[in-house]
Amino acid sequence: MGSSTAFPTLVPMTMFIIVFLALCLIPHPAQAITRHYEFNITMQNVTRLCHTKSIVTVNGKFPGPRIVTREGDRLLIKVTNHVPNNITLHWHGVRQLRNGWADGPAYITQCPIQTGQTYVYNYTIIGQRGTLWWHAHISWLRSTLYGPLIILPKKNVSYPFVKPYKEVPIIFGEWFNTDPEAIISQAIQSGGGPNVSDAYTINGLPGLLYNCSAKDTFKLKVKPRKTYLLRIINAALNDELFFSIANHTLTVVETDALYVKPFDTETVLITPGQTTNVLLKTKSEYPDATFLMSARPYVTGQGTFDNSTVAGILEYESPTLHSTKLTKKIPLFKPILPPLNDTSFATNFSKRLRSLANSQFPVNVPQTVDKRFFFTVGLGTNPCEKNQTCQGPNGTKFAASINNVSFVQPTTALLQSHFFGQSKGIYSPYFPVNPLNWFNYTGNPPNNTMVDNGTKVLVLPFNTSVELIMQDTSILGAESHPLHLHGFNFFVVGQGFGNFDPTKDPAKFNLIDPVERNTIGVPSGGWVAIRFLADNPGVWFMHCHLEVHTSWGLRMAWLVLDGKLPNQKLLPPPSDLPQC
User: What torsion, rounded to 10 degrees, do the Cα atoms 135, 138, 141, 146 define?
Assistant: First the structure.
């Protein structure tokens, strides 16, 4: 009798459990979250190459802290400045849709954070996943203020390649025994080239090939038969780098947080500002050897450069802890890197990069173009002030320009001036769409190498499809220039050597699977063609990511106007935006 009275209550309970379990099994959309970071800008004593100096850091760390987030997440990064220098931080490669206030280049999208001030960088990662990075965007402070910004795919979304056993950031930097701020300040004053760095670093460490640095060597410990994802970032100030691991092949799977068709290579070329994800497949058995992972510069210009090599060690975990292998000396293999000036390797490597271009990751390259622009990029000169001896070419001062306009940094932020309609006297909206003086760009340079100086922006209506040709010049020597565009990714549809030919070259453009990036090297003595859609209202900086060239004026800004709809307009500035 007792069991029959209990049975009716059991049915709804069983049903409840079944319904509850069914609900649990329904896949719910991944929940985006808000992640909070606190960045205190402080001075910290750091020793490298037996030189101790006080450097500007985030939270006392060098390199700075790693930011890890997911696609769709919101980031609130509270930056408090405890040092004498003005500070801004840039989240390199984050699109900052309608939200240039969080982009970070000093006097372009914000006034700097002054000593004792706080500013919260508030932004959401929309439609992006992969390896990016953050760095200071004022003067040369990014020499020590930088770190990885890793965006994981949304939850339950896998990589379009084999799942790695482990992920490792590899971030290249440059170490100066003296203060880089003093170096560039003195160079600007004298008009000459700045002193070069004393070492390159991997994750802040120069490595065993440098004097006094055996203990400061990055070691990557691996297991056999595993796949590692190396997230490579070039945070060096002024040098493109070749990178290779002895006796190992790397598979390139992503550049600038955009997936590419995988390809194998012994060596990776990476310019300042760029990121490259590679898969490292370890050997099937313990190799009884260690392997150097080395980087050294790719050099195209005529100036002095840091001709040294940074090395880390790839070390296999020994199969038995107490084996004789730990006591006997095992061989150390070194990689063979391309020659310093190997432009043919650089070209071939660049041409192998193609977008994944599949149904999940389509290529939205503009097939038609609303506006075409032609920019010369290169070096030039400014006259020496009266009663001063200058150390630039023929007693002048070094300068750099785009379409012969050397950018003059304003004293108030361009984005604020634009938003509040107070641009008069701050910037001109008439940046030249073509060079004002045509010449044989890659032939014998003209006698007059003087640049024009000004703060000019190029205005684009919302949703303009743009094609831009960037042409290197031979003025003061042809040189590769890694150009970075803020606020957008762009498609690299073509590149070549010599002068761009507008009648023949466009026929060879790749509009099927061009690589998509945020930073591209303009080939030494050549040109590159990019396309992008101006769908992000605001003021967006474009500059050479060789810091010396940016300091000399190789920079400009695009002003993208608001669209008609509410979701096509620049958001208003945050209340804590720093003032100049």
Answer: 0
Cβ 315 vs Cβ 220: under 8 Å? yes
Instruction: Give the integer Cα–Cα distance in Å for 248 and 330.
Output: 17
> Who contacts 551 (Cβ-Cβ below 8 Å, separation ≥6)?
139, 140, 184, 187, 188, 194
Stretches where the chain sits below pLDDT 50 are 1-28, 322, 324-325
Question: With contact defined as beta carbons under 8 Å apart, do 414 and 557 qualify?
Answer: yes
Q: Which of 392, 372, 373 is nearest to 384 (CA)?
A: 392
The angle subtended at Cα 460 by Cα 455 and Cα 461, nearest 5°, is: 145
Q: How far, in Å, CA of 164 to CA of 279, rounded?
A: 8
Q: What is the pLDDT of residue 30?
A: 61
Q: Are strands 290-298 and 310-316 parallel, antiparallel or unpaired?
A: antiparallel
DSSP class per residue in 346-370: HHHHHHH-BB--SSSS-----SS-S
- Can you tell me which residue has the tokens 């700097």? 112
Residue (of 474, 470, 488) closest to 528 by Cα position: 470
Q: Please give the distance of CA 433 from its chain centroid, rounded to a whole number.
A: 26
Q: Are 160 and 360 in contact (CB under 8 A)?
A: yes
Which residues, including other chains, have CB under 8 Å from residue 312's CB and lie 6 or more apart? 170, 202, 203, 205, 207, 217, 218, 219, 220, 292, 293, 294
According to the model, what pLDDT value does residue 5 have? 36
SS (HEC) of 219-271: EEEECCCCEEEEEEEECCCCCEEEEEECCCCEEEEEECCEEEEEEEECEEEEC
pLDDT of residue 33: 97
Could you tell me where the beta strands, DSSP code E, fall in 125-182? 130-136, 146-152, 166-175
Place of tokens 């985030």: 58
317 CB neighbour count, 10 Å cutoff = 11
Question: 31 and 74 in contact (C-beta within 8 Å)?
Answer: no
Nearest to 273 by CA among 244, 243, 232: 232
| Interacting residues of 461 by C-beta distance below 8 A, sequence separation 6+ | 534, 561
Residue at token pair 């004298």: 190
Separation between Cα atoms, residue 487 and residue 542, nearest integer Å = 9
Torsion angles phi and psi, residue 347, rounded to 5: -65, -50
